[in-house]
Structures are given as structure tokens and as C-alpha cells.
């Protein structure tokens, strides 16, 4: 079992910055990707940024150039640096870990509220 614990959400003004952290623990192996998703009420969860096994990162078009995903592998911790935040970035942000070979499993953090005021 894998546990993901998020921290770093909060309230920030338009144009501000926040950094989210996600600490992973447990039986971690064959990680395919780790990433960040977000969700607003009434809408499906959407991918924000993914850090893949090959070291490449993918970003949603809406955050490209403003958000940066990074990892500290020694500490099993992932970060999302969010700059130039906009009110439309307001959402609950979830960290995700996908692992496994023939059978893949997704694990999720508890969610962190990010609110950007205009």
C-alpha cells in the first residue's frame, strides 16, 4: 500500500505563487508516473502535470510556462511550483502515483485546496 500526503495549499492573490508538496510512503515500486491533478465542483478531475518514468514532464496547456513539477527521489517527495496564479487555477489539487507492470494501480493524496483571489 502507498500513502500520499499533500501540503502547501492555501489562499493567494492573482499573480501570486504557491508550492504544493506530496510525500509518498509505503511499498513503492515500478512507478510509471507521478503527477498532479485538480478538480472543481461539478467538473471532472483534470491532469495538471505529469512526471514520467523516462524523466520527461507533461503539462496541461493552461499551466504551461507557469507551473513546474519536480521530485526529490531520495525523499520520495514531489512538488508543484505554481507561479503567476490566476483565479481559474482555483481548485482542489491532488497528487497521484501510478505504479505496477502488468497491473497498474493509482494512488491519490487527500487533496489540497488552492484558492486564487482576483
Description of the structure:
The protein is mostly beta strands and 118 residues long. The protein contains no helices and eleven strands. The chain has strands at 2-7, 10-13, 18-26, 31-39, 46-52, 57-59, 67-72, 77-82, 91-99, 105-108, 112-117. The radius of gyration is 14 Å and the shape is globular. The N and C termini lie far apart (40 Å).
Q: Outline the biggest β-sheet.
A: 7 strands, mixed
- Strand share of the residues? over 45%
> Which range best describes the helical content: under 10%, 10-25%, 25-40%, 40-55%, 55-70% or over 70%?
under 10%
The assigned structural class equals mainly beta
Are there runs of 5+ residues with pLDDT below 50, and where?
A: none
List the helices and strands and how they pair.
Layout: E1 2-7, E2 10-13, E3 18-26, E4 31-39, E5 46-52, E6 57-59, E7 67-72, E8 77-82, E9 91-99, E10 105-108, E11 112-117
Parallel strand pairs: 2-11
Antiparallel strand pairs: 1-3, 3-8, 4-5, 4-9, 5-6, 7-8, 9-10, 9-11
In short:
It contains no helices and eleven strands.
Task: List descriptors.
single chain, 118 residues, 4-stranded antiparallel β-sheet, 58% strand
Amino acid at each position: 500500500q502507498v500513502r500520499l500526503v499533500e501540503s502547501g495549499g492555501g489562499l493567494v492573490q492573482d499573480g501570486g505563487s504557491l508550492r504544493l508538496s506530496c510525500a509518498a510512503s509505503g511499498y513503492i515500486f515500478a512507478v510509471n508516473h507521478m503527477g498532479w491533478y485538480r478538480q472543481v465542483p461539478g467538473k471532472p478531475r483534470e491532469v495538471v502535470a505529469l512526471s514520467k518514468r523516462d524523466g520527461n514532464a507533461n503539462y496541461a496547456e493552461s499551466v504551461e510556462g507557469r507551473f513546474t513539477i519536480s521530485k526529490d527521489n531520495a525523499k520520495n517527495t514531489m512538488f508543484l511550483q505554481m507561479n503567476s496564479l490566476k483565479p481559474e487555477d482555483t481548485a482542489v489539487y491532488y497528487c497521484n502515483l501510478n505504479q505496477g507492470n502488468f497491473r497498474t494501480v493509482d494512488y491519490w493524496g487527500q487533496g489540497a485546496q488552492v484558492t486564487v483571489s482576483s
